[in-house]
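Continuing the batch. This is chain 6 of the set; chains 1 through 5 are on the previous pages. Same settings as before, nothing changed between runs. Recording input and output for traceability.
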Amino acid sequence: MKPVGELTILITGATDGIGLGTARELARRGAHLLLHGRNAGKLEAARDTIAAATGSDRLETHVYDFADLDQVRGLADAVAAAHPRIDVLLSNAGIGIVTLGVDGRELSVQGHELRFAVNHLAPFLLQHLLRPQLEAAAAPGGKGAGPSRIVNLASAGQMDIDFDDVMLARDYSGRRAYCQSKLAMIMTSIDMAKRLDPASVTINALHPGSMLDTKMVREGFPRVMGPVEDGIEAEIHLATAAELDGVTGEYFDRLHTARALAQAYDAAARARLWKLSCELTGIAA
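Output for chain 6:
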């Protein structure tokens, strides 16, 4: 991995919580940051906060809503047009178990269950679309020093995917929707690792810590269990630690590899999910 000051890093969900804290620390270390959020006002405020705290003038903003896969494509197009090389993609954008003021199942613009769409399909599509830029950063012409990295912010909160009701039309709960979307993210991370040259791009999933003090946890749970700094430390470790060059297809519980739910290691289930995810995002299987 190159020195942090030489990295171009795309951070989705950079307006609060772990994404904002990670962006602030990476800006302090001199990285060139592409900050993503769905709310223009919040994103501009996040950029200004980071700039004031770090003195960084290497901050770009990209406003796109991951509830719409067409906007995910728009983000990929904008980033690729401006940056032929991306060193790190940090997928933080997501939705928790509840949406304040909303009771019941929600759908994305394309009609998919919202948590499955935002937490899984959007990052799945984005990492496919930006694969050329990630591979270019690790190539000799990109002055690469070790592979580029994708870090998917997952969770220890996982539930098996019911392939007969993936969109939870019959058996919906916010907790189930969230937990199966995070397992889906882990499962496709494992399969994506098998499709990428680990000398070029690595991909790992991360549980940043349980019930950390973030907006998502405060809105969906009765109490918090740990400081957001724990998650920030873990994400920066996966994004930048030299000893993780070439480590791919793993699920991390904070700073250490761990085991996800058993379905993540079921090759037939992963193949079924991969095919479905490709169909829903328009990616060639």
